[in-house]
Structure formats: structure tokens, C-alpha cells
Specification:
By secondary structure, the chain is of the alpha+beta class. Helix content is about 40%, strand content about 20%. It has helices at about 1-20, 20-35, 40-45, 55-90, 110-125, 135-140, 150-155, 175-180, 220-235, 290-295, 310-320, 335; strands spanning about 125-130, 135, 160, 165, 185-195, 205-215, 245-250, 255-260, 280-290, 305-310. It has a seven-stranded mixed beta sheet with strand order 1-5-6-10-9-8-7, sandwiched between helices. Strands 2-4-3 form a three-stranded antiparallel beta sheet. α5 crosses α11. The longest helix is centred in the N-terminal third of the chain and has 38 residues, at about 55-90. The structure holds 3,4-dihydroxyphenylalanine. 3,4-dihydroxyphenylalanine (DAH) binds near residues 172, 250, 253, 284 and 285. This is Phenylalanine--tRNA ligase alpha subunit. Tetramer of two alpha and two beta subunits. Belongs to the class-II aminoacyl-tRNA synthetase family. Phe-tRNA synthetase alpha subunit type 1 subfamily.
Length: about 350
């Protein structure tokens, strides 16, 4: 038994010396000192010893245990220290490493153009109004003199949420909402997104931007419309810009017109941007139809007004010479970084 105890001690000390990680040390503790360990099983056999032998072997067993325990403690401390130092070394922050670059976003060309348009109208005393993009058929069509079977509906086919709810095809419904809520004088613009069920190509997008304008007061005439929109064109494109009005038809204005401006690339000479004509179509406009005023509870015998609507994407494309509307909606940084 004595030899066996010495063997256990030597084996334990030798194996502990080779241990490299704390889990190995723990395994050795269990193996030699644990309840089912080697030393414990020797001590269990002590019952069979003679009365003289028992205290001697008992003493030796205690010494062996003490020695193994001391070694365990020593090895554990060394390994724990080593592991701690390794952890610290691994977690060290390299303050010489270059930082991550913070890229700051840019304004979208649509946003930039909208802002300059808004600034011009604000300087003329217009307010800015907002309307929902999911709109009642009533506001988007009916109240604007576009009943169910009107041909203008096929030009402005859209996404129907249900029979009475559509994605608005124009910002014109904001005219109705504002006239219902406010009493004249009204002088507002309303920029925003509109939707049409158009197939995507270089000049069509199912989503695009418009900016509506509406002025209602006593004694408003076509001269006010012309003066306001001509001033806008000059502020937007420069003093040399000339404008002309062509008769047109919109169901919610009477008379209606489209306004062209002299091409700001060639000043009217004729170039690629204006397709050789010297003129660029900027917007639709007209005197608010008396029926539309009546639809909103405004007496056309007392009040009159004018309205206009821009395609903002078109303005952006003309301004920057962009030949494909898709570029405005694809979020391609190679394109956007140019502004
Ligand atoms: N809403 C028309 C469109 O989308 C544009 C328009 C034309 C707006 C004439 C107006 C207007 O306010 O008076 O084609």
C-alpha cells in the first residue's frame, strides 16, 4: 500500500507538471483526489490493515494528499495567471489602427430641386400644404371634374386599393382638401409623390414627384397666373428666360394652358435638350373651374383662382441633363455622388 501511495503521488505530480490549461488541472484533481479518485479508493481499503500499519499508512496518505493539493494549487495559479495574461494580450486595443471613415450622406437631386422651387414660391407668399398619397377616388378624380368614365382616367391609370381608394395620380387632390378646409384667400403649393401604373422606361416611372400650386381670392385673373409663373421661371432659370402659354385641356381648369420656357441650355436656339424647338414644356395650369370651386363650397361668383402643376422629375432631368428617370430612383451612389 505504501508503494501504491508513492506511485500515486509521483504520477499526480508528473501529470500536473505537464498540465497546460485549467480544465486539464481540474480533470487531474478529480482523477486523483475526487470521490471516485485513486487516493480515495486506497483509503477505502485501509480497513484491511493491521493496527500498527494503519496510522503509518494513514499519515502517509495525508501527506500524499497534502502534497498533491499543494501542487494543484501552485499549478492552478500559474495556469490561471498565464490564461489571464493571454486574455489581456488578445483584447488589447491597437490605437494606431486607422479608424472607420464616417461617410456623410448627400442631398438627392430631387430634393435639391424641390427646395429651390419651394424657396421661390415661399418668397412670393405661398404656404406649403400636404396631402395623403393614398387618396380617395373622390379627391383624386371626382371632385376635380373627372367622373368615372372620363377619358382622363385612362391616362392616369393607377393602383386601386379598393373601389374608392387609390394611390394618387397627381397632387391636384390637395387643391380640393385645402379649399374644403380653408376659406380664401388661399395661396399654397403642395409638393409630393404621385403614382401611375406606367411601365418603367427612360421617361416613365410608376412613382414620381409633382408640385401643385393654387391661388384663390377675389378678383384673381389669368394675368395673375401669367405673372406668377413667369416670375417663377425667371427666378428658377435666370432673367433671360421667356415663357409662352399654349392652350390645353384639363378637366379641373377653364381655360387651361401649358407653359413652356425658352430652353435654358441653348436660350431658344434649339439643341438636344429641347429637341431643336428652343422651348421646354414646364407645367400645366389654368383658371380653377367654377364647378371645382362649387364642389368645395366656394362661390365662383365671389371668388376665382388659378392652379398649376409641375412634374418635378422633369425639372430635375432638364436642370442636370439627366436622360433617364430611373437614375433618380435607383439609389446608385455612383450617380448620387455627382450632386
Ligand atoms: N394634375 C395635372 C397632371 O397631373 C397637372 C396640372 C394641370 C395641375 C393643370 C394643375 C393644373 O393644377 O391647373 O397632369
Amino acid at each position: 500500500m505504501k508503494e501504491k501511495l508513492v506511485e500515486i503521488k509521483e504520477a499526480a505530480l508528473a501529470e500536473l507538471k505537464n498540465a497546460k490549461i485549467s480544465s486539464e488541472v481540474e480533470n487531474l484533481r478529480v482523477k486523483f483526489l475526487g470521490k471516485k479518485g485513486e487516493l480515495t479508493s486506497i483509503l477505502r481499503g485501509m480497513g484491511g490493515l493491521s493496527a500498527e500499519e494503519r496510522p503509518l499508512i494513514g499519515k502517509l496518505a495525508n501527506e500524499v494528499r497534502a502534497e498533491i493539493e499543494a501542487k494543484l494549487e501552485e499549478v492552478t495559479k500559474v495556469i490561471k495567471d498565464k490564461e489571464k495574461n493571454e486574455k489581456i494580450a488578445n483584447e488589447v486595443i491597437d490605437i494606431t489602427m486607422p479608424g472607420k471613415k464616417n461617410t456623410i450622406g448627400k442631398r438627392h437631386p430631387l430634393d435639391l430641386t424641390l427646395e429651390s422651387m419651394k424657396e421661390i414660391f415661399i418668397s412670393m407668399g405661398f404656404t406649403i400644404e400636404d396631402g395623403p398619397e393614398v387618396e380617395l377616388d373622390h379627391y383624386n378624380f371626382e371632385a376635380l371634374n373627372i367622373p368615372k368614365n372620363h377619358p382622363a382616367r385612362s391616362e392616369q391609370d393607377t393602383f386601386y386599393v379598393n373601389d374608392s381608394l387609390v394611390l394618387r395620380t397627381q397632387t391636384s387632390p390637395v387643391q380640393i382638401r385645402v379649399m374644403e378646409k380653408q376659406t380664401p384667400p388661399i395661396k399654397m403649393i403642395s409638393p409630393g409623390k404621385v403614382y401611375r401604373s406606367d411601365a418603367v422606361d427612360a421617361t416613365h416611372s410608376p412613382i414620381f414627384y409633382q408640385m401643385e400650386g393654387l391661388v384663390i381670392d377675389k378678383g384673381i385673373t389669368f394675368a395673375d397666373l401669367k405673372g406668377t409663373l413667369e416670375l417663377f421661371a425667371k427666378k428658377m432659370f435666370g432673367d433671360k428666360v421667356q415663357t409662352k402659354f399654349r392652350p390645353h385641356h384639363f378637366p379641373f381648369t377653364e381655360p387651361s394652358a401649358e407653359m413652356d420656357a425658352t430652353c435654358f441650355v441653348c436660350q431658344g436656339e434649339g439643341c438636344r435638350v429641347c429637341k431643336g424647338s428652343g422651348w421646354i414644356e414646364l407645367l400645366g395650369c389654368g383658371m380653377v373651374h367654377p364647378q371645382v370651386l362649387r364642389n368645395c363650397g366656394i362661390d365662383p361668383e365671389v371668388y376665382s383662382g388659378f392652379a398649376f402643376g409641375f412634374g418635378v422629375d422633369r425639372m430635375v432631368m432638364l436642370k442636370y441633363g439627366i436622360d433617364d428617370i430611373r437614375l433618380l430612383y435607383e439609389s446608385d451612389m455612383r450617380f448620387l455622388n455627382q450632386f
